Amino acid sequence: MKMRTLAFFVPALFLVTSCTTLMNLMPEVSMKKRQVIYDMVDAMAFPEARELGRSKNRRMGLKKGQWITVLQETLGGDKNVSLTTTKVISVDGTTVVMETESRSASDDARPLHSQVTFENYPVSGSLSYTRDEYDRVANRLRITRVLTREGDGPVIEMPPELLAMARTMTDSALAGSTVRVGEAERQAYDGTYICTPSCFSHRYTLSVAGITSSGRSLSHSSIPVNGAILIEDEHARATTVAYGYKGATSVFQP
Questions:
Q1: pTM score, two decimals?
Q2: Which of 9, 125, 168, 231 has its CA 20 to 30 A from that of 137?
Q3: Which ranges of the chain would DSSP assign to H, the alpha helix?
């Protein structure tokens, strides 16, 4: 069986897995704080499940204005929840600017904004890649600028030397990981926010620094930015609760 991996898959699951031990050592986040995030979900999410048709094989092309909002839940440990919206600010050839706004229950739902400029970004492509294909994409991808802002605080730009260091650390982390992903299978999905008679399902096993995680991921070509419906393992779950094809704007001054 040919092993495949999702385009958005490795970075997301690397973060989930590598943080698991730390989360298990943290005190449990109170239900009162978690409820603040769940109330935000209720306000932002689709009021009824978005009905999608049969997924195509290829991912929707990246376009300015697209956005996706994902609820991330830690299933054990501190039981933290967070809500992250990823926005496509601009697409110029293969140069892409994306922003995220993330709010975490453990941080009192305070907004954390980041803007990242990518070069050689896979603007259009498949919903899944072989590991060799993914490595070729990852090796060409470059992050050339990172801006961050916490709450109403000042905008901070990451200096070039830290960008280079982050690239080296990411390459080392991915090189030391082991990913096993089965061939994509079609399946129906009937969720709270999205339902479809046919999306793509991947079963995976990921090992990073001796920590192994197994789970599944679901994707659909009608969902913008990364095609993600759901990523879940025994430690955490990330669920798409809303998305749009236009309207995303930057919180950073040009």
A1: 0.86
A2: 231
A3: 9-18, 20-25, 31-44, 131-140, 160-175
